[in-house]
Design goal:
The complex is a heterotrimer of chains A (326), B (305) and C (307).
Chain A lengths: L5 E12 L2 E13 L4 E5 L6 H9 L7 E10 L2 E2 L5 H7 L4 E4 L3 H4 L6 H12 L4 H14 L5 H4 L9 H13 L5 E5 L7 H18 L2 E6 L2 H5 L4 E6 L2 E7 H6 L4 H9 L38 H4 L6 E5 L2 E4 L8
Parallel strand pairs in A: 3-8, 3-9, 6-7, 7-8
Antiparallel strand pairs in A: 1-2, 1-4, 4-5, 9-10, 10-12, 11-12
Helix pairs in contact in A: 4-5, 5-7, 7-8
Chain B lengths: L1 H28 L13 H10 L6 H13 L14 H36 L4 H14 L3 H15 L15 H27 L2 H8 L4 H13 L1 H25 L4 H11 L2 H29 L7
Chain C lengths: L6 H4 L18 H11 L1 H18 L1 H4 L31 H37 L1 H15 L3 H12 L3 H28 L2 H8 L4 H38 L10 H12 L5 H28 L7
Classes of the chains: A alpha/beta (326), B mainly alpha (305), C mainly alpha (307).
């Protein structure tokens, strides 16, 4: 088996606020293989974005603090790098795109500037060459008339186009990993599919790894090789896409699956997991999902780490429930 | 955008006409005339003077006469300074006031923007509290308070500067500082607020995620949006500096427009007052147009068509 | 056009207001605001100082030993000592007394002129905003013409024309500030107009004037109060400015502005106390007003953009 490109072990990021300690990420581990897609799924507040931003050092250090864990990328622990070293990686070897393309692009600068500055920062390149690469990047993501539109401002693009511009910006320096944080959430449903298609094809063309963060299992379905389900800062289930969708084990994952509206479903009401996500500063002592779990037992509420069950070779579930059944 | 600018310029004309008319009638309808003060002039002399300046004609005739000469660019004779016309007085003094005003404005911008950026670079730290507290004081230090205090300190006690006059190049320093300090304070707070607002924005997070250097982010991304409130403020700021010059020129005995304006207001020198009012109005309208255009240049989302 | 400057943005407070993370059972808006205000230490200090200054001003006749206009030409100007805590001016008048009586004038002008501007501005803005259409356009156009000149120049003209009495001063100052108030109120009214309870009132047949009085105006109170509080120091400053130039308060009455002006002419003769104390008094009062106004604004609208 080839060596993992990114190996995260037991990452813990806490926020120290006046309301108490918020354990946004509490012991997440995963491996990312070259050329593969990892999908991270969870409700808002589950810690998915914070995990990724911790890797890139984008968490404001007060009040946040990475209290533990390692993240090995190409032999180096990202979490121990200096700010200068982190900067060399951002945008060049690991890139990130964000949820809302409307606010994530600088409205006062031309698209050309925002694209070429990545190159100027990370490579020695002439402005002519940089502009050429920028136009190519825009063409690659499917912007028509790239040579003209490159001198436009973000507000002159539609939502889907802006997200494409963001993707172009992230890929222009040819990174090894692209992290997409809710890339389609702010977009129209029709555009969503296009963007996901685009990401998939770009990944293949560039041979890079992709991490997609989303709260929508449907988004993850067609595109991921491996899926990570998070809840309250902890991992609850991990496995291949098939494992998660066809051999679901954890009750939370099952709840998420049931919540996906289906066109062939006769039910009069849409299903949603009962209860609310927990207050991150006041987490339950035992299994964090227990208060909302329909199949919970007494043992689930007891203090202590929930055991990790190995369902199959690459499929884990953090649950007391024995494999295969109640 | 040129069409917009032209439209604005054309729009100024009715406003200026309205201003001229309003000022004219206000001044003429006031009790007392420009020659009522001081010595009691014999009736014959008074009658001659009034005739010479057409003050004995019906009001509407005076109005048309004035408007007529306005259109020819002639602001009329000064009532008080008999041998000079308003145009003369203005052309002799405007350069002084202009250089003072520009100096004050530049001082305000430099001090304000740099302290605001400093404060915003590390919010809620000493780097923030010290400039902001000083700027709070600055807001409460109008030119007629700071001017005398500075004169006391730097002019009399320390004797670094001349206390009045406009001969030595260094004579511009104290007046410019007195004029600009209050506005430096406002600019400082606006810059700090503007920069902090921008820094919270998502696109700064994107810039960081692209691995850009801190200085690049500040200069290219943050300042462009962050300084917009300062640009907007330039309009009221120039108006304020204009008005502030009245006081500063009086205190420091500077032969500028402002001092003449105050004098002519106190003396009821109709034509001089109105000439200057028109000048100020035009100046401000033009400056506001320039500010709006600059704003449109900086913020591509703003379109005036 | 984006030129209009948000006055409250200029006066942004730097004091962090502590977040109250626990949700309280519904208290009235005013009680909430009052609580928030009290937490802002600078605002409280400002308020206390203002109350102190106002009380001293109000009780002046009982507190002062000397008269503010009684001259002692033999004494002349003396620096601060035990009898005259802040010294005397060149006509032998006690400075402390003059400053205290000056505060009566300055504060009175500030409050009265602000009230005038509030009254006119709210009415003008509310009507313009509510009626809308051509009337609104016309009213706003008229305002624009007036805006073309800096307020001070207009005040100077008015003062020159109407004569330099103190009542004219109130009117002149108030008549200038109302324009800014009118703009703000109109903006508020325009957005309130779109709210549903206005629809409801209209649908039930309430007359427009009644709607304006009963629904629109109470809901604009927030920004109006805040702006009024911030207008007071602006007016006091204007008055000081005018008095300094000789166009404001006339002798024998004195305000802080005239005192500063007198102090300036005396400076050549090296009598710094004649200028330092009036300046300090003006400065501290303005500071207190600004602190309080900032705090009030933060208390009434915690969402207003802060650090």
């Amino acid at each position: 088996m080839s060596e993992a490109l990114l190996q995260v072990k037991d990452l813990k990021t806490y926020f120290y606020t006046r309301a108490g300690v918020v354990k946004a990420v509490d012991g997440i581990s995963f491996d990312l293989m070259p050329g593969k897609t990892l999908g991270i799924v969870g409700e808002s507040g589950s810690g998915k974005s914070v995990t990724m931003m911790s890797l890139l050092g984008l968490i404001p250090q007060p009040p946040g603090k990475i209290v533990g864990g390692t993240a090995f990328f190409d032999g180096v622990d990202l979490l121990t790098l200096s700010e200068k070293e982190k900067r060399l990686i951002r945008g060049k070897r690991i890139s990130m795109i964000f949820q809302d393309p409307m606010t994530s692009l600088n409205p006062y600068l031309k698209v050309a500037t925002q694209l070429t500055e990545v190159l100027f920062e990370h490579e020695r390149i002439t402005s002519k060459e940089a502009r050429k690469r920028a136009i190519e990047a825009l063409e690659q993501v499917g912007i028509p008339e790239a040579a003209n539109r490159i001198d436009h401002y973000p507000h002159q693009f539609s939502g889907g186009m802006r997200q494409r511009v963001m993707i172009a910006m992230a890929l222009i320096a040819k990174p090894q990993i692209l992290i997409a944080d809710e890339p389609t959430t702010a977009l129209d449903v029709t555009v969503q599919a296009q963007i996901l298609e685009l990401l998939k094809s770009l990944q293949k063309d560039l041979g890079m790894s992709l991490i997609i963060i989303t709260h929508d299992l449907g988004v993850v379905a067609g595109i991921s090789d491996e899926v990570l389900v998070m809840y309250a800062g902890k991992l609850v289930e991990r496995g291949s896409a098939d494992d998660i969708f066809y051999r679901t084990h954890h009750p939370y994952t099952q709840g998420l699956l049931k919540s996906i509206p289906r066109i062939d479903n006769d039910a009069s009401e849409l299903y949603s997991i009962p209860g609310l996500p927990p207050d991150p500063s006041k987490l339950p002592a035992g299994c964090p999902f227990e208060p909302r779990c329909s199949v919970s037992k007494d043992v689930c509420a007891q203090v202590g780490a929930v055991p990790v069950q190995s369902i199959s070779a690459n499929h884990e579930s953090v649950c007391y429930r024995p494999e295969g059944g109640a | 955008m040129y069409r917009y600018a032209l439209r604005r310029i054309f729009g100024m004309v009715p406003v200026l006409l309205a201003v001229a008319t309003i000022t004219f009638f206000i001044m003429r309808l006031a009790p007392g005339g420009p020659f009522d003060t001081d010595r009691q002039l014999p009736a014959e002399v008074l009658k001659n003077i009034n005739a010479r300046y057409h003050l004995d004609e019906p009001l509407y005739m005076q109005y048309f006469r004035y408007m007529g000469s306005l259109l020819k660019g002639d602001l009329g004779p000064s009532f008080r300074y008999a041998s000079h016309s308003v145009n003369d007085i203005i052309s002799e003094t405007w350069a002084v006031s202009a250089s003072l005003g520009v100096a004050g404005l530049l001082y305000a911008l430099f001090l304000g923007v740099s302290s605001g950026v400093l404060a915003a670079s590390k919010p809620n730290s000493l780097r923030d509290y010290i400039p902001m507290t000083i700027s709070l004081l600055g807001i409460c230090l109008p030119s007629f308070v700071i001017g005398p205090l500075f004169i006391l300190l730097f002019g009399i006690i320390l004797n670094w500067f001349n206390v009045s006059g406009w001969e030595h190049p260094s004579d511009i320093v104290l007046p410019a500082i007195s004029l600009g300090t209050m506005y430096a304070a406002y600019v400082s707070r606006l810059t700090r607020g503007g920069v902090l607002d921008v820094v919270k924005q998502d696109y700064i997070r994107t810039a960081k995620a692209k691995g850009l250097k801190g200085s690049t982010i500040m200069l290219r991304h943050t300042l462009k949006g962050g300084l917009l409130p300062v640009v907007s403020f330039l309009g009221p700021a120039t108006a304020g500096i204009l008005v502030g010059s009245f006081v500063v020129e009086t205190i420091f005995n500077i032969p500028g427009l402002g001092r003449f304006f105050v004098q002519s207001a106190l003396n009821r020198d109709y034509t001089l007052v109105m000439g200057m009012v028109l000048l100020f109005a035009t100046l401000l309208l033009v400056l506001n147009l320039i500010v709006d255009l600059i704003y449109a240049l900086l913020d591509p989302r703003v379109s005036y068509d | 056009m984006t030129r209009a400057v948000n006055i409250s943005a200029i006066n942004k407070s730097t004091t962090p207001v502590s977040d109250d993370l626990s949700v309280e059972a519904g208290t009235s808006l005013w009680a909430d605001a009052w609580r928030r205000l009290l937490k802002n230490k600078l605002a409280v200090v400002g308020l206390v100082y203002l109350v102190f200054v106002a009380s001293v001003a109000a009780l002046a006749p009982f507190l002062t030993v000397f008269s503010y206009e009684e001259m002692d030409l033999i004494l002349g100007a003396v620096p601060p000592n035990d009898t005259h805590w802040l010294g005397t001016d060149d006509l032998g008048r006690d400075m402390l007394t003059r400053i205290i009586y000056g505060s009566r004038v300055s504060l009175m002008v500030g409050i009265l002129a602000t009230s005038v501007s509030v009254a006119i501005g709210v009415l003008y803005g509310a009507v313009s905003g509510y009626v809308g259409g051509r009337v609104d356009n016309l009213m706003m156009r008229f305002l624009e013409v007036l805006y073309a000149l800096p307020f001070t120049i207009l005040v100077i003209i008015v003062m020159v024309v109407l004569g330099r009495s103190i009542y004219n001063l109130f009117i002149a100052l108030g008549a200038i500030q109302w324009m800014v108030m009118a703009r703000i109120v109109r903006g508020q009214v325009v957005s309130i107009k779109k709210m549903e309870y206005i629809e409801a009132a209209r649908a039930s047949g309430v007359r427009p004037l009644a709607i304006i009085w009963r629904h629109v105006i109470p809901n604009t109170l927030g920004p109006v109060i805040v702006f009024a509080t911030l207008t007071v120091p602006a007016v006091i400053l204007e008055e000081a400015f005018l008095s300094f130039l000789g166009l404001g308060v006339q002798p024998p009455m004195s305000s802080w502005g005239t005192l500063i002006s007198d102090g300036v002419s005396a400076m050549q003769a090296e009598m710094p106390w004649l200028i330092v104390y009036p300046c300090l008094t003006l400065m501290t009062t303005l500071l207190a007003l600004n602190f309080f106004g900032d705090g009030l604004r933060d208390a009434l609208d915690p969402k207003s953009s802060k650090d």
